[in-house]
Amino acid sequence: MAKSSLGSGMKASEDLVTLADVSGGADKALEQVKADDLPDELKGKSKEQQKAVIEQNQQKRATIQKQISELSKKRAAHLKDESKKAGAPAKDAFDSEVATIVREKGEAVGLSYE
Fold first, then answer.
1. Which residue spans within 1-114 are E strands per DSSP?
2. pTM for the whole thing?
3. Would you give the distance in Å from CA 75 to the centre of its chain?
């Protein structure tokens, strides 16, 4: 499986924003990356400017993740409401059979579904 990269030599799972999150901040993330491996957006900037860009991207990512979470909750609620409106599926419907099997298998390993 090919590894995607960000810039030269950085794996996608190790982008600077993620690295800053897991390493304790933008300063520590920048210490771990060679200047040649920095994205073009950060090359030629001072450490303070680089840190500011990374922190700004962390804030953007947090905002987007929050929006995704909120939309996911709204979607789940909408689907639940639509399911109630549609009424109970026929017992022999494919979806109903799959849901039953998934619930049974999940309960066997300690999972529960709402």
1. 5-6, 10-11
2. 0.61
3. 17
The average pLDDT across 74-93 equals 82
DSSP structural state of residue 15:
-
User: DSSP state, 111?
Assistant: -
Coil, strand or helix at 11: strand
Strands 5-6 and 10-11: what pairing? antiparallel
**Residues 16, 54: contact at Cβ < 8 Å?**
yes
Total length of the chain: 114
Q: Do 55 and 26 meet the contact criterion of CB atoms below 8 Å apart?
A: yes
Residue pLDDT, tens place only, 47-67: 999 999 999 999 999 999 999
